[in-house]
Amino acid sequence: MSAPAEKLAQPAPRPDEDQIVALDGATWADYQRLLAIRGESSVPRLTYLEGRLEIMTPSRSHEKTASRVGHLVEAYCLHVGIEFEALGSWTLEKEEAERGAEPDECYLFGEAALLDEPEAPQLAIEVEWSRRAIRKLDVYRKLAVPEVWIWHRRGGRISVHVLSDDAYVEVERSQILPGLDLEQLASFLDRPTASAAIRDYRAALSTAP
């Protein structure tokens, strides 16, 4: 890797901030070498885009938010009877596109998708906690991820981005889970514990008309 590391957070990040380093001039072989060194661990997360490599260790707050969004998605699917598979930070990569990424959470839905073993998830979930070196949508676009949700730290909302003609379009509702009210889901993320968030969300779903 020919260029020095660029530290994106100055001064050193606080405990509730992600730790992010970016390397320019990285090759695909560099990216693969770091994946091999890291092994099966989910951290640090590695994102590669056309010679730029981002190494990110998410903060506890980042991980907690991503996990809670995932738990509530799963609670919704169980409530309405949708089969799903949670794939966590599945490493997605495509050498010819010079792209690789790991979502905060990702999913497949429906029995057909689970049997097909696709190369990418139907849904990737990202938490926008700290300023990133690489725009993840630019990576996912060439990895053919149909839908990406981004939770925004500022405002606490979830935006939905659907792949259309090789570009992401922001839409109001999920196309993968069209019955899911994301504004309602996000409103339960501030509960003191994950169990409280799940319990209260399930109660709200059960009492909905």
Concise structural overview:
The protein has helices at 28-38, 60-80, 111-116, 136-142, 182-186, 194-207, and strands spanning 5-7, 19-24, 45-49, 52-57, 84-86, 92-94, 99-101, 105-109, 123-128, 147-152, 157-164, 167-171. It has 209 residues and is α+β, with helices and mostly antiparallel strands.
Q: CATH superfamily assignment?
A: tt1808, chain A
**Helical content band:** 25-40%
CATH architecture: Alpha-Beta Complex
Strand content: 25-35%
Main sheet specs: 6 strands, antiparallel
What is the C-alpha radius of gyration, as a whole number of Å? 17 Å
What's the N-to-C terminus distance? 57 Å
Structural category: alpha+beta
Mean pLDDT: 91
Q: Could you list the spans in which at least 5 consecutive residues all have pLDDT below 50?
A: 2-11
Tally of strands: 12
Structural shape? globular
Instruction: Please write the CATH class name.
Output: Alpha Beta
Reading the helices and strands in chain order gives EEHEEHEEEEHEHEEEHH
Return the domain count: 1
The order of strands across the largest sheet is 1-2-4-3-7-6
